[in-house]
Amino acid sequence: MRARNKPWADDYLRDNKDIVELSPSDYKNKWEDVFNNNNPVHLEIGTGKGQFIVGMSEQNNDINFIGIELAKSILVSAVQKVLDSNQKNIRLINEDANNLTELFGENEVDKIYLNFSDPWPKARHAKRRLTYKSFLDQYRHILKDDGELVLKTDNRGLFEYSLVSFSQYGLILDEVLLDLHEVNDPTNVMTEYEEKFSNKGQNIYRCKARFPK
Ligand code: SAM
């Protein structure tokens, strides 16, 4: 996802500290303090412009949603969407998913969403894929025992790679869909990329997986 550089992004994120958690590692093991409740925590990695997280939060007021996004200039669009929605169950973090275990304690997260993650098609970049083993190590650490990992993508190469990576890691696959939009799932909230690629006629793949106990 490309966005023009926004020199004002830093100030904008700082001005919206009710939504953007500026020192997220302070809340490791204490995210319930941020939301003031014990509701389940769902994490979206690579939130982009926020359409998914806002849509999900509107459907699920009893779930706390946290979105992590590396690019400040993209995150500001997500902040704007959260402000427009007036949802109180969302927080956003400007962080790299490489640092997840610094932000969340063991068993602190109920579900992780990977939506249209960058595919990094070159073999020498495999370690950057968000379904590479080192990321799975972090997901296993922060997810509860029955926690779920949900992957959606239009990219066949990333999907195939991820299924193999999950299998090699011993994950249990609860669902593999090669054409998500062919099935009627009223709970599916489309991301910006999902809308863009399905409008072009591309299949959307989805996989739901769990770590073994
Ligand atoms: N999820 C959105 C969607 O489906 O419309 C955006 C998809 S876009 C292809 C991938 C997003 O992930 C980008 O906004 C990128 O900045 C972010 N991203 C990539 N690597 C990341 C990382 N290591 N940590 C956090 N965000 C990351």
From TrEMBL:
Gene3D superfamilies: Vaccinia Virus protein VP39
GO CC field: tRNA methyltransferase complex
GO MF annotation list: tRNA (guanine(46)-N7)-methyltransferase activity
Pathway: tRNA modification; N(7)-methylguanine-tRNA biosynthesis
EC code(s) of this entry: 2.1.1.33
Binding site for substrate: K122, D154, T191, E192, Y193, E194
Matches recorded under InterPro entries: SAM-dependent_MTases_sf, tRNA_(Gua-N-7)_MeTrfase_Trmb, tRNA_methyltr_TrmB_bact
Broadest EC class assigned to this enzyme: transferase
Methyltransferase as UniProt keyword: yes
HAMAP family in the cross-refs: tRNA_methyltr_TrmB
Record-stated family: Belongs to the class I-like SAM-binding methyltransferase superfamily. TrmB family.
Protein's recorded name: tRNA (guanine-N(7)-)-methyltransferase
Source organism of the structure: Aquibacillus koreensis
Gene that produces this protein: trmB
